[in-house]
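Continuing the series of single-chain predictions for the mutant panel. This is the parent chain; the variants come on the following pages.
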Amino acid sequence: MKNDAEPNSAHASPPTATQILRARARALARPPEPAPAAETLLEVLEFRLAQERYAVETRYVREVHPLKDLAPLPCTPPFVLGIVNVRGHILPVLALKKFFDLPEQGLTDLHRIIHVCGHDLELGLLADVIVGVRSIPVESLQSSLPTLTGIRGDYLKGVTAERLVVLDLARILADPKIIVHEEVAN
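Parent structure:
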């Protein structure tokens, strides 16, 4: 018959068990890591345009809609794709691919409209695919990449190490170039 007080080769010896318990106690007694402050995190909506990853701050995003019933507008710049009716509200749709001179493909029912608001404007941004919402540390944003030149660099908030391009939507919405002031001559 086996005595329960006898050490078993399958169980840890008392000094080893004591060391393990002390290590666990030290780990549990350690003060928790402070959570990053809200100011240091940037919540963004990530989407794809022409095989590149872009994001905009969610504070400007109202909702995301499927692309349906797009009506083209005459006498508008090429980046103004047209208008859509969203529950009785007429929303102009901008094609960022044309605005940024990115390669284009035809429109499909997989495209989405990112409904954004800011600077007294409400409009839709056409996205190829919506990836999702995530938080990124503000300090992880690099100012630019050599491949981002021209107009994309003008509207850049930063680029992450994973090459996610975060657009400065406040700058885009405040730009007078997106406002169409053309009149048709009779």
